[in-house]
Amino acid sequence: MLKRGSGPKKALIFTYEFPPMGGIASVRVAKMMKFLPGYGWEPCIVTTRDAPTNIPDESLLKDIPQGLAVYRSYSLEPTRLIRWIKRLRRERQGEGKAGDSSGEVVHSYTGLPFESLVRLKGLLVPDEKIGWFPFALYSAFKALRAEDVEVIFSTGPPFTSHIIALAFKFFTGLPW
Q: What are the two backbone dihedrals, phi and then psi, of residue 71, each rounded to the nearest 5 degrees?
């Protein structure tokens, strides 16, 4: 049931990418945050705090309303594990060794062959960001205690954002 107050209504928004993280998903959410208050909605964000593929874009921060409540949470990322394994492998082989000369095309930020990366991602359902689920859900309950949230909104990819929103709806009964 929606509560009707005199102030703006609050929406809890699940988004994996959020400024100062760059990328098209961050741009989309930043622009939405800029205009929501004009329609009577005060956004409240649940996002990740340190995505391993983060490309900062400080210019997106200008679109974020002052005083916006942002709840940043940890995320277990397979990319971190891959980088750790690569570092161990480099240390074992010696820093001066050249890269893999097998002729396989490697994924840019993991250094793994594309085929290996596809297999790894196939094990993670709905996507490789599922490690964010428990931490984001915890942050959402912190936000619920601090904010007068009336509705849940999720944006993706990653589709994990929608799974988190569905679980939060299940536990709180808030409309999604």
A: -110, 105
